[in-house]
Amino acid sequence: MSLEFTRITPAPVPSTARQSMVRMRDGVRLATDVYLPEGDEPVPAVLVRLPYDKNSDYVFMGKTAERFTARGYALVVQDVRGKFRSEGATSAWSGEVNDGYDSIEWIVNQEWSDRVVGMFGDSYYGFAQWTAVAGQHPALRAIVPRVTSTGWAPHVMNPGDPSIRRVPWMEGALYLATHWVDRDTYDYQPDYSARPLRDAFEQAFEAIGARSSAFDLTVPRPVPVDAYGTVHPYDARPVPVLHCVGWFDNIGSAQMYDYTQLAKHPGWAAVQYLSADSTDHENNFLQDAPRAGAEDHARNDEDVDHLLDNYTGPALDFYDVFLKGSKPLDSLPRVSWHLGHVGWQTSDVWPPEGARTVSLFLTDAQAATGAAPGGTLSEQPDGSSVDWRYDPEALIPSAVPNSWEQLRYHPDERATADREDVLLFTGAVLAEPLDLAGPVELKLDVESTAPTFDVLAKLLDVAPDGATHMIVRGNAQGTGRGELRLDLGHTGYRVRPGHRLALLIASSDFPLYVPNSGTDESPWLAPALKPSTQTLHTGSLSITVLV
User: 29 forms bridges with which residues in the sheet?
Assistant: First the structure.
């Protein structure tokens, strides 16, 4: 039986936009909408370059334009090369440096332009801002990359700190196999029971009648892609940047890696700002979680207006300083961050002043495979160890069907925590609030009976009634025995009195992550998967807390 799929084609261009086909240096034309404010005076422009259909409800650029034009900015929204109404080959990552430069050059030569340009956008269109930075057009004066990473290419399967070997990310593969086949987007559910696992996507490509070149560059093993050409953004001319981070974003740790790396470059450190909210990749808020009964991106006008206040507000304030010069530099906080369950905070640095690192050790390990509370998070190590099983015939179900929208679901994970094939370590009941404000890192001394093994960890908030919700997460793939480091990302989160911190360690998270083969074979190509046993010898969790 052929796999069923839905083809998503371009939505109509709204009457408020003027579409042009903008010619690039190689003759390819990119579909570009211009939204202009009232009046005849030249104005600054903000460019958005995206692969998700510039006119779709998904990206709500029409409503975004209302906010931008009301503040006196032209909003220019473009389908990237090979997507929807734009010409050219469909190929993620490649060509964006030149296309970004040429698009800015087109803008500055329009009669409505004052020759000052900023950029804006999420995810891939955040990555497109970094490629424009690499292009170093002199008119580019400010960028606002949201929920994204410079490492989006070629590491969509493994963004962030390159020193960590991560578990292959099935969602990343699905993204490439649905969004980067041809000009349109495809919606389908792969049959993840297929073996070898890559066949789940081969079935889809056969049904569609076309393949994703980006998928083929990534699965089963990533092929290096030259996304930036001669200049990586870190080494480019510094441009004022507002990093807009979601504490619950599934690539949030990768964006914070950019922030911490740029802080080491004096030129960039002087012009980078941080706005971090308790949101996920798709702009769902912790305070609204879960959004019961809501479909993907299904929001009424009131919901969208609420979202746009947070979505566009910080960016417009940033542009008023660096594009218009209508507000003073000291009107911008260097760091604006949301403390979950409390509200917005500001600081001059991140982590904020007063934050310190606290180490918690994984103790009473033999109890960790039992029901909650399992083992203990303690201030002192005790030298205990424990084994846990990886069984490919009983994979641990992913807590959410779609981690891009983690907070749409915000599930209670206590059923997973009680499984015998995971490790759970729980801290003491808190008498006072515990404010997390900074990075979270896990270090483990672990080995396996298999040549490679996967470790997926979550830091959890356990309520007095036992309800268990994720705060941050991370993963790593190990080989042999040795220290395994997991970057669980950064957070701003209050663990309230009566609650407890807990740490969950597992060897699978399916289908969000590709199950380990249990052998030397690629998990994408293995005809069968083999079980294994992992041994945790010691472990420590580092959290950053405000005192």
Answer: 23
